[in-house]
Design goal:
Blueprint lengths: L1 H16 L15 E3 L4 E2 L2 E5 L3 E6 L8 E2 L19 H8 L11 E5 L4 E6 L9 E7 L1
Parallel strand pairs: 1-4, 3-8
Antiparallel strand pairs: 1-2, 4-6, 5-7, 7-8
Length: 137
């Protein structure tokens, strides 16, 4: 995907320009959003309708990618690690260790509906681990 190559190049340029900045993690060719201990990097991405976003757990902690179902654009497909149909089910499943994405694992979702798609990490939501995918027509 050309967008990933572009983002990787921008990430490399930013790395050189921001050497020494704590917490910066350049994007890789194989994912769009990385996960630190308590944050998605980048926190927000913008894509076109039909693009697939890939999240990768780049930390040692277990995480999730869980859509806020009540704030998704009308007609948007729900997305969550574990393949759940709604936020409540994803939250309940987390207690049974389902929907977990561990170090090095990826999750992907193709966005077909324009608008803002907000999401969060179940165990780290209260620490502010939230993100958004902005889908443009």
């Amino acid at each position: 995907m050309r967008r990933r190559r572009f983002l990787a190049a921008v990430g490399t340029a930013a790395t050189v320009g921001s050497a020494g900045c704590a917490g910066f993690e350049p994007l890789a060719d194989d994912y769009d959003v990385g996960m630190t201990a308590q944050a998605y990097r980048p926190r927000e991405v913008t894509v076109a309708v039909g693009d697939t976003v890939v999240w990768k757990n780049t930390s040692t902690r277990a995480h999730s990618v869980t859509a806020y179902g009540d704030s998704q654009p009308d007609g948007a497909a729900y997305f969550a690690t574990g393949g759940f149909d709604d936020t409540a089910t994803a939250r309940e499943a987390w207690d049974d260790n389902r929907g977990v994405i561990t170090n090095g694992e990826t999750f992907e979702h193709t966005f077909e509906t324009p608008g803002r798609h907000d999401y969060f990490c179940i165990p780290h939501e209260t620490a502010g681990m939230v993100g958004a995918v902005i889908v443009e027509a």
